[in-house]
Design brief:
Layout: E1 18-20, E2 30-32, E3 34-37, E4 50-57, E5 70-77, E6 90-97, E7 110-117, E8 130-137, E9 150-157, H1 201-207
Parallel strand pairs: 1-3, 2-4, 3-4, 4-5, 5-6, 6-7, 7-8, 8-9
Length: 218
C-alpha cells in the first residue's frame, strides 16, 4: 500500500489567551496560553525557554540568543526574528506568518510540523537541522544554508531558492515545484527522489554541470 501523505498539523492554540507583555527573558522561563503583542525582545540572551499554546504578534527578537528554545503549538505573525541565534531549538506545530527571519541561525535544531508562509529567510542557516513535515509557502530563501540537514517531507511552494545550499543533504521526496532554483547548490547523489515540475528539469540538469545542446551542437 502507498504511504499515506502527512497532513501538516496546525498549532493547537486556545481561543482564549491571556495577554502578556514581556520586556526581558531569563533562563528556563516557561509561558503557556499567552498572546504576546508588540514586545521588543531584541538582543535578549537566555536558554532553555519554553513557549506553548501561544500567539506572538509584531514581536521583535532581532539578534536575540536563545539556545535550546522550545516552541510547541505556537504561531508568530508579523514578527522580526532576524539574526537570531537558536541553536539546538525544538519546534513542534509552529507557524511563522509574514515574518522576517533574515540570517536566523537554527543550528542543530529539531523541527516537526512547521509552516513558513510569506516569510523572508534570506541568509538563514539550518545547518545540521533535523526537519520533517515542513512547508515553505511563497517565501524568500536566497542564500539559505541547509548543509548537512536531515530533511523529510519538506515542501517549497513557490519560493525563491536562489543560491540556496543543499550540499550534503538528503533531498529524497523534497518538493520544489513552482520555486525558483537559480544557482541552487546541490550534489548529484542528492537529486534522486526530488520532486520538480517539467519546466524545472533543465534547471536541475544545469545545476549539476551538464551542458545541454541541440543535436547540431549549437
Amino acid at each position: 500500500m502507498p504511504k499515506k501523505k502527512h497532513i501538516l498539523q496546525s498549532p493547537n492554540i486556545p481561543a482564549s489567551l491571556q495577554k502578556l507583555s514581556i520586556s526581558s527573558l531569563a533562563d528556563y522561563d516557561e509561558y503557556a496560553e499567552n498572546q504576546i503583542t508588540s514586545c521588543d525582545l531584541s538582543e535578549e540572551i537566555a536558554k532553555n525557554i519554553l513557549f506553548e499554546e501561544s500567539l506572538f504578534q509584531r514581536v521583535i527578537l532581532t539578534s536575540a540568543r536563545l539556545p535550546k528554545l522550545h516552541l510547541r503549538d505556537v504561531r508568530f505573525e508579523n514578527c522580526d526574528i532576524s539574526v537570531t541565534f537558536l541553536e539546538a531549538c525544538r519546534l513542534r506545530r509552529v507557524e511563522f506568518i509574514s515574518c522576517r527571519l533574515l540570517g536566523a541561525q537554527m543550528l542543530s535544531s529539531e523541527m516537526d510540523d512547521v509552516l513558513f508562509r510569506e516569510c523572508n529567510l534570506e541568509g538563514a542557516v539550518f545547518l545540521s537541522t533535523k526537519a520533517k513535515h515542513i512547508r515553505f509557502e511563497k517565501s524568500m530563501l536566497p542564500n539559505v544554508t541547509f548543509e548537512g540537514a536531515d530533511l523529510e517531507n519538506i515542501t517549497f511552494d513557490y519560493c525563491d531558492l536562489s543560491q540556496t545550499d543543499f550540499q550534503n543533504t538528503n533531498l529524497q521526496g523534497i518538493d520544489v515545484r513552482g520555486s525558483t532554483l537559480n544557482g541552487m547548490q546541490i550534489e548529484s547523489k542528492s537529486v534522486n527522489g526530488i520532486i520538480i515540475s517539467p519546466e524545472q528539469a533543465i534547471q536541475i540538469v544545469s545545476l549539476l554541470g551538464v551542458i545541454v545542446q541541440d543535436s547540431e551542437g549549437y
